[in-house]
Amino acid sequence: MLSQREAQERFARGLLDASDAAVLGHIAGARGMDAAAGLAVYRNNTFSNYRGALREAYPVVLRLVGADFFDHTADAFVRATPSTFGDINVYGAGFGGFLEGFPGARELAYLPDTARLEWAVHSAFQAGDTAPLDFARLAAVPAERLAALCFVLHPSASLIASRWPILAIWRTHQPGGGEETIDLGAGGCDLLVIRRGHDVDLEPVSAAEFAALAALANRAPLGDALEVAHAADPDFDFGACLRRHAAAGTFADFALE
Amino acid sequence: MSMRPDSVSAAIPPARAGIGLRAPHYRELLDSRPDIGWLEVHSENYFGGGRPLWFLEQLRAHYPISLHGVGMALGSATRLDAEHLRRLKFLIARIEPGLVSEHLCWGAVEGRHLNDLLPLPYTEEALAHVCGHILQAQEFLGRRILIENISSYIRWKHDTIPEWEFVAEVARRTGCGILLDVNNIYVSAFNHGFDARVYLAAIPAERVEEIHLAGFDEGEACLIDTHGRRVSEPVWQLYRETIAWLGPRPTLIEWDTDIPALGVLLEEAATAQSILENMENPHAHIRSLPPDGAHAVHGRLSTAGRLRGRGAVLREFPASPLGAALQEA
């Protein structure tokens, strides 16, 4: 008799790869349907579930390419990219990178970065909550140790840099976003995406600020973050930047190296 | 586990009608606080923080809460996902739900989750395996869970155990409760051509701690459990029978696709509530399964459901046609 593991492996392959010959002999469709028709109900459902999850995460890409092409792309992505978690809400990371090499999407050079921005927004909505930064404990750090301080960014925070005006693209394609024409030659943008309260903010930041936050996100100590920020802009006010982000909740915690 | 003073979420949902909490209704529910018995959420939708968890935190002060999982895939031949269990345990600690449930299904293979509720082969091997996972989950979570019967569109040819016996045996071996989805029984009875009454008769009544009701769609050849419409009349009929047999149980109206206005859910809940309050209705009876006919496959499948209650109510059998049917058997 087919083992449980073998039965499930064969069913999964039949569901996703259309290589269903190995499972059809072992199942019976409901209500007189043949096995292939029964499996097709599940196949339709599975792809429909994933299309729905990806549409939820990538509404701007959906508007940019249209429903038919989106679903076609989504199905190919699903075949190439296994879901690895039981919560379908977190499925779809990597869709931006997938679009880079996907036939038909290559002409839309801004699409992958737009997708990356959408994933940052989607992930920010779903990130966990944190306790506020402990300012009393922060104040107790001696001045001579400050350069070794490592901030932990809020779990919802992402830093997205693009040579395309993806913030304008994103805003224009929000519901009620208007008919504004995007100048694709308008230049790129550096963005901090983060949940503040219940809303997700897309905040344009300067190159120096981006460099500092990216260093901190990689757990670099303050001293290193200061250096990379000043390398980008010698006049950058690092202290003001830190105070602003600390007050706004960009940092969830800190540690001393 | 201590109950926070400002919360009723840890109370076991009463034997009343409740509704599934869905994002479009957060604000209206919190503002209007309708008179329903309890709320159920899909656990995974609250694995993060932010707005969803904030609303659930507010609502738990007013309603008993049930956490209903769709992603643990307890019957998969892989190991249980430790991260999934950890997140669920964290959510349980935060929300203190009165009930926690999952599905009797599989959904993952090595290296890949399918994010669907797939029917097990009903074999001794699968029974032993899924019971092992349920026991592991209950131990890790530190509490009993309820297990829900799913609807299905295929069956395995090497099944050796009827689904209803499989469900009953899972409850017996693991001590878990049963979340009886009456719509799923109806859908699967139609799809696989078995008698819903035979299914019900095999279920240990005292283990049924919650009931789910939802709407199905008619596919080309079979019924599809879409949770996208009102509960159908034959399912209400089967529910009346079920309640006449079990006694009142917490009963959930589930709606997951094409989510309607809150008022529609409340109307459905009011129908369930009136059945719960008139459960001794001796005219209730299970109608025969729907006739053969052409249907069209469309819509998304979804799965969720559960129920709870207690009390064996064998003495009520004579009062209901179901009881009569069982006595004749």
User: How many individual helices of chain B?
Assistant: 10
H-E string of chain A: HHEHHHHHHEEHEEHHHE
Radius of gyration of chain B, CA atoms, in whole angstroms: 19 Å
CATH architecture heading of chain B: Alpha-Beta Barrel
Describe the structure.
- The complex is a heterodimer of chains A (257) and B (329).
- Chain A contains 12 helices and 6 strands.
- Chain A has 257 residues and is α+β, with helices and mostly antiparallel strands.
- Chain A has a 3-stranded antiparallel sheet with strand order 3-4-5, with helices on both faces.
- In chain A, helix 3 packs across helix 5 (67-80) and helix 4 (59-65) runs antiparallel to helix 7 (111-126).
- The radius of gyration of chain A is 23 Å and the shape is elongated.
- Chain B is 36% helix and 16% strand.
- The model of chain B is unreliable at 281-329 (pLDDT under 50).
- Chain B has one domain (17-328): TIM Barrel.
- With 329 residues, chain B is an alpha/beta fold.
- The termini of chain B are far apart.
- Chains A and B meet through helix 1, strand 1 and helix 3 of A and helix 2, helix 3, strand 5, strand 6 and helix 4 of B.
- Strand 1 (27-29) of chain A pairs antiparallel with strand 8 of chain B.
